[in-house]
Specification:
With about 550 residues, this protein is α/β, with parallel strands linked by helices. It has 2 domains: about 5-285, P-loop containing nucleotide triphosphate hydrolases (Rossmann fold, 3-Layer(aba) Sandwich); about 290-535, Rossmann fold (3-Layer(aba) Sandwich), CATH 3.40.50. Helices cover about 35% and strands about 20% of the residues. It is built from 19 helices and 23 strands. A 9-stranded mixed beta sheet has the order 13-12-14-15-23-22-21-18-19, sandwiched between helices. Strands 5-2-6-1-7-10-11 form a 7-stranded parallel beta sheet, with helices on both faces. A 3-stranded mixed beta sheet has the order 16-17-20, with helices on one face. Helix 1 packs parallel to helix 3. The chain is globular. The structure holds glutamine (GLN). Glutamine binds near residues 465, 466 and 467. Glutamine binds near residues 386, 387 and 466.
C-alpha cells in the first residue's frame, strides 16, 4: 500500500507519567479494528537501553516477549491483548536502537565525511524505521505511542521526527492524540485545565498540534471544562475526550472511549469511513469480569510482588481465564521471602491455587520452593511459570527423590546436584542483552498427560525467556518417583512442561504462556489452572 494511503496516529502523553497512554492507544486500536480497519501498533521508547531486557522490574515492570524473541515494553502486551496487530521487534523502537544504528553507520563511513547530528541523522533513522514498518506491515492505520512525557529531553528527537513525518505525508493523513491529566483540586472544588494547556503549548513549540485530547480525570469533565480545553488547547470540542478512571477493569476503556465517540472523531479527522463498531462480544467479556457468578482465591508467590507492573501479563491471563469460566479472582499476593520465615499454612491456607511466576536471582527462592511443596503436599492446584517450573523441579528432587543437595546453578554455582543447569548454548555467552533463549519455540506434548488434555493438541508454540533448563541427567531418577515430563522440545533434549501424577492440577512450564492469552481466547494452561482452582475451593 502506498504510504500516502496509510493513516497515522501518534499518541503522546503530558503532565505526568503513568497516565495509561498505552491502554488508550490499545483501546483506540480495538475500536478501529471493530470497525473493520486493519491496525498496526508500535511504540517509540526514548530511553537509551537498546531494549528493556536488561532493566530491573523495579525500573520497568514486566519485560514482554514477542514471537521473534524481541524483549519489549509491557505496552506491547496491551497491544497484543487489545488488537490483532502482529508484533515483531520492528514494533518497539528505542533511542538505544536508533543511536546504535546511526553510530554503526558512522563507523562504516556511510555518512561520507558529514558531521553526524541528531537532526537530520537521528531523526532520519526514526523516520526510516516508521516507513519500513509501514511497508512491511500493510494496514489502514499505524498507531504509534511515544513513551515518556512531553518535555522530556530524550523524547525530542522522536517528536521532531514525527513533526517532519506529518509534514511529509500531509495533514489529514496523520494526527496527534495527546493523553493528558485533568486534576481535581479539592480546595477549589474544581478540575484544572492549566497543566494540559501547558503540555500542549510545549508540543506546539516543537511544531506538533494535537487534534485529539484524551483527558484522564477522576470526575466528569462538564461542558465548561470541555469548552475551556477545546479553546485553550486548540482542539475541536468533539475531540476533547473524557477518560475517567475505570471502575472495574482496564477492558472497560474501549467501551468508555466509544461512548465519547473517539473512533468517529479520529476517522473524520483522517478522512476515513468505516462501518460501526460492534462491541457485543467485548461487552459480554467485560460483564463477566464485573459480575462473575463465583469467586476464587489464587496466590501469586513472587519476588516483585509489591510492584503492580511486574507480573502484568500473568494477572491479565488470569482475568481472561476466569472470565471464560464465569468466575472472579481474588488475588493473594505473597512475597516469596515472607514464606522463608512464615509457614506456608499461615500465608496460603485459604487459597484455592498457587502460581509461581518467572524470575531471576536467588532472593526468595527458598520461599517459592516452600510454596511449591505446600501445593504439592496439600493437593492445591499449582501453576509454575519458567522459574516456577525450575522451583517445582528442585522441590520435587529434594523432598520426593531425596536429592537433598538439589538446586539450580543459577543460585549455587557449585551445588552438588544441579537439577537445573545452564543451557548448553548459554555456556559461552557473556553479554547480558538479548542473549537468553528467547521467543517462540515448539513443544511436543506427550500423549496421556494432563497437559495434552489441557491443550487439546500434541504440538504447541510458546514464548521463552531463560538461560537455565532441567538437567536431563536426573530424568530417570525423577520420573521413577512420579515426576512427569509432559512436554519437550521437538528433539527431546529440553524439558518444556512438567506435571505430577496423583495431584488435581500440578503443571509447570519452562516458557511464558502469559504472553499469548487474549481476552476472548484465554490461554489453555491458565484456563485449566483456574478451572482446577474452582474445583478445589472456589
Ligand atoms: N532465571 C531463570 C532462567 O534464566 C528463569 C527465567 C525466567 O523465569 N524468565 O532460566
Amino acid at each position: 500500500m502506498p504510504l500516502q494511503k496509510m493513516k497515522y496516529i501518534f499518541v503522546t502523553g503530558g503532565v505526568v507519567s503513568s497516565l495509561g497512554k498505552g491502554l488508550a492507544a490499545a483501546s483506540l486500536g480495538t475500536l478501529l479494528e471493530h470497525r473493520g480497519l486493519k491496525v498496526v501498533m508500535q511504540k517509540f521508547d526514548p530511553y537509551l537501553n537498546v531494549d528493556p531486557g536488561t532493566m530491573s522490574p523495579y525500573q520497568h515492570g514486566e519485560v514482554y516477549v514477542l514471537d521473534d524473541g524481541a524483549e519489549t515494553d509491557l505496552d506491547l502486551g496491551h497491544y497484543e491483548r487489545f488488537t490483532h496487530s502482529v508484533l515483531t521487534r520492528a514494533n518497539n523502537t528505542t533511542s538505544g536502537q536508533v543511536y546504535q544504528t546511526v553510530l554503526d553507520k558512522e563507523r562504516r563511513g556511510d555518512y561520507l565525511g558529514k558531521t553526524v547530528q541528531v537532526i537530520p541523522h537521528v531523526t532520519d533513522e526514526i523516520k526510516a524505521r516508521l516507513r519500513k514498518l509501514s511497508t512491511e506491515q500493510a494496514c489502514d492505520i499505524v498507531i504509534t505511542e511515544i513513551g515518556g512525557t512531553t518535555g522530556d529531553i530524550e523524547g525530542l528527537p522522536f517528536l521532531e521526527a514525527i513533526r517532519q513525518f506529518i509534514q511529509e505525508v500531509g495533514p489529514g493523513n496523520a494526527i496527534v492524540m495527546h493523553v493528558t491529566l485533568v486534576p481535581f483540586i479539592k480546595a477549589a472544588g474544581e478540575l484544572k485545565t492549566k497543566p494540559s494547556q501547558q503540555s500542549i503549548a510545549k508540543l506546539r513549540e516543537i511544531g506538533l498540534h494535537p487534534q485529539v485530547l484524551i483527558c484522564r480525570t477522576e470526575h466528569p469533565l462538564g461542558e465548561d471544562v470541555r469548552h475551556k480545553l477545546s479553546v485553550f488547547c486548540n482542539v475541536p470540542l468533539e475531540a476533547v475526550v473524557e477518560a475517567r478512571d475505570v471502575d472495574h477493569t482496564i477492558y472497560e476503556m474501549p467501551l468508555m472511549l466509544q461512548k465519547e465517540r473517539l473512533d468517529d472523531t479520529v476517522l473524520r479527522q483522517l478522512h476515513l469511513t468505516a462501518g460501526p463498531a460492534d462491541m457485543t462480544e467485548w461487552k459480554k467479556f467485560v460483564d463477566r469480569i464485573i459480575k462473575p457468578k463465583k469467586r476464587v482465591k489464587i496466590a501469586v508467590v513472587g519476588k516483585y510482588i509489591e510492584l503492580q507492573d511486574a507480573y502484568k501479563s500473568i494477572y491479565e491471563s488470569l482475568t481472561h481465564a476466569a472470565a471464560s469460566v464465569d468466575c472472579g479472582i481474588d488475588l493473594v499476593p505473597v512475597e516469596a521471602e515472607a514464606l522463608e520465615e512464615t509457614h506456608p499454612s499461615k500465608l496460603l491456607h485459604e487459597v484455592a491455587g498457587v502460581l509461581v511466576p518467572g524470575g531471576f536471582g536467588d532472593r526468595g527462592i527458598e520461599g517459592k520452593i516452600r510454596a511449591a511443596r505446600y501445593a504439592r503436599e496439600q493437593g492445591i492446584p499449582f501453576l509454575g511459570l519458567c522459574l516456577g517450573m525450575q522451583v517445582a523441579t528442585i522441590e520435587f528432587a529434594r523432598h520426593v527423590c531425596g536429592i537433598t543437595g538439589a538446586n539450580s546453578t543459577e543460585f549455587d554455582k557449585n551445588c552438588v546436584d544441579p537439577v537445573i543447569d545452564l543451557l548448553e548454548e548459554q555456556k559461552d555467552v557473556t553479554d547480558k542483552g538479548a542473549s537468553m533463549r528467547l521467543g517462540s519455540w515448539v513443544t511436543k506434548i506427550a500423549d496421556g498427560t494432563k497437559a495434552r488434555a489441557v491443550y487439546g493438541q500434541a504440538e504447541i508454540r510458546e514464548r521463552h525467556r531463560h538461560r537455565y533448563e532441567f538437567n536431563m541427567k536426573y530424568r530417570a531418577r525423577m520420573e521413577a518417583a512420579g515426576f512427569v515430563i509432559s512436554g519437550t522440545s521437538p528433539d527431546g533434549t529440553l524439558v518444556e512442561l512438567i506435571e505430577l501424577k496423583d495431584h488435581p492440577f500440578y503443571l509447570a512450564c519452562q516458557y511464558h504462556p502469559e504472553f499469548q492469552s487474549k481476552p476472548t481466547q484465554p490461554h489453555p494452561l491458565f484456563r485449566g489452572f483456574v478451572s482446577a482452582c474452582l474445583g478445589h475451593g472456589g
